[in-house]
Write a structure and sequence with these properties.
- The chain is of the alpha+beta class and 423 residues long.
- It contains 14 helices and 16 strands.
- 38% of the residues lie in helices and 20% in strands.
- Helix 12 links the parallel strand 12 and strand 13.
- It is elongated.
- The N and C termini lie far apart (57 Å).
- The chain binds histidyl-adenosine monophosphate (HAM).
- The site of histidyl-adenosine monophosphate has 27 residues, from strand 6, strand 10, strand 11 and helix 11.
């Protein structure tokens, strides 16, 4: 029988990698709190129609990357390929606007896209993200970028620069679309067959096609630029976003061909790339989507948000810095010198744990020497060797100094040491 393996494009996150995940999760939770965002968790599957209607019928995600299946009731369901659609669905369903606007929400969890797996591109991956609903102010666009910027800074990324663009409102977008169609019709024969069709159905999607032939065409200097087709009003809003970013000290580069791979964007769009990620360099992306909530049957409310790929962030962290140290290593390793002291060891172990410390012992009947080795391997700060009569030999594993005391006074020292380290 072939050995059982994880499905291609999925991966196990093993204990050795957990310090990275925990570090990100801790920083994310803390920064979200400081910026006033509240957490929301939505199901991992939804009705297929939700994604088709929001991400767009003609996007790569909806056309070829969704994990769609029928349940026993014959409903078409899809594993969420991203978080925005589900958050908006939940926002409408639970009338979250009644809790005051703007509603600033954040989320974290697994997403699913059937893409060709490679470094930094998986079929099950994780995102954290935010959706700020209800404010049309360009300050909100700048705030979500600032929030990510603080997270990235606290995770040790010093060189940060965003790619920024503005798609504008309906008028700007249709002016740009018309120019783009003109250009694409002139080079249609050089496009992949999917994009030849998309020139008619959804020309903006050609801009993020990954086929090499299309990429070559898109490098032409004659490619129309979104920023040349903005109305006066949209241009003014874009200027405001830039002014806020500059005020916050956020570095950006305008990238007029950045349109993002999802259809719901209506104004500012942005991405951030990190060095060392190879072809999959975008670690986060987002933008304004002022039509989506109304399009999905909710009120006419503007919104802006982003999502960050956590696996990509970890790949970049591994290039960037030393492995984060996991808090909560073993405080005490309880050593039983012989069979007769084992029951006492179990009692000590349990008491130490009940007092809130991390404790371990041997479960393999090993010799005392082997137990001391295991204590060192577990990075225990202290080895507690059980002695008769309620006594114990306490070895500081860092200095190797050892003293004998009663178990009771050991617990008291442990508690006072912990109090000091918490001060
Ligand atoms: P997205 O650009 O499709 O945007 O995804 C955001 C991030 O998720 C990417 O920059 C990347 O880091 C990560 N990502 C996407 N696909 C994969 C994959 N197959 N493997 C590993 N990482 C991946 C969105 O999802 C939008 N919902 C963002 C948003 C929120 N816009 C407004 N609000």
């Amino acid at each position: 029988m072939d050995p059982l393996k994880a499905i291609r494009g999925t991966s196990d996150i093993l204990p050795a990698d957990m310090p990275y995940w925990h570090r990100i999760e801790k920083v994310v939770r803390d920064v979200m709190r400081r910026f006033g965002y509240r957490e929301i968790r939505t199901p991992v599957f939804e009705e297929t129609g939700l994604f088709a209607r929001s991400i767009g019928e003609d996007t790569d995600i909806v056309v070829k990357e969704m994990y769609t299946f029928h349940d026993l009731g014959g409903r078409s369901l899809t594993l969420r390929p991203e978080g925005t659609a589900s958050v908006v669905r939940a926002f409408i369903e639970h009338s979250l606007d009644q809790q005051g606007l703007p509603q600033k929400l954040w989320y974290m969890g697994p997403m699913f896209r059937q893409e060709r797996p490679q470094k930094g591109r998986q079929r099950q991956f994780h995102q954290f993200g935010v959706e700020a609903v209800g404010s049309p102010d360009s300050l909100m666009d700048a705030e979500v970028m600032h929030l990510f910027d603080v997270i990235a800074g606290e995770l040790g990324f010093d060189e940060r620069e965003y790619l920024l663009n503005c798609l504008g409102g309906e008028e700007s977008r249709s002016a740009y679309r018309a120019e783009l169609v003109k250009f694409l019709n002139g080079v249609k024969g050089k496009l992949c067959s999917n994009c030849q069709r998309r020139v008619e159905t959804n020309p903006l999607r050609v801009l993020d096609c990954k086929e090499p032939d299309c990429r070559t065409v898109l490098e032409s200097p004659a490619l129309p630029r979104t920023t040349d087709h903005l109305t006066e009003d949209d241009r003014a809003i874009f200027e405001e976003v830039r002014r806020h970013l500059e005020g916050l000290g956020i570095r950006y580069r305008i990238e007029p061909s950045l349109v993002r791979g999802l259809d719901y964007y209506t104004g500012t769009v942005f991405e951030m790339e990190l060095a060392g990620l190879g072809a999959q360099s975008a670690v986060m992306g987002g933008g304004r989507y002022d039509r989506l909530i109304a399009d999905l049957g909710g009120k006419d409310l503007p919104a802006v948000g982003f999502a960050c790929g956590m696996e990509r962030l970890i790949l970049a962290m591994k290039k960037n810095e030393e492995k984060p140290v996991e808090a909560g290593a073993i405080d005490v390793y309880v050593v039983s010198p012989d069979e007769s002291s084992r029951d006492m060891a179990v009692r000590y172990l349990s008491e130490i744990r009940n007092f809130g410390f991390a404790a371990e012992m041997d479960y393999l009947g090993r010799s005392m020497k082997a137990q001391m080795k295991a204590a060192a391997r577990a990075h225990a700060s202290t080895a507690l060797i059980v002695e008769p009569g309620g006594m114990a030999s306490v070895k500081d594993m860092r200095t190797s100094s050892q003293e004998t005391m009663s178990f009771e006074s050991f617990i008291n020292t442990l508690k006072s040491r912990n109090k000091k380290s918490n001060q």
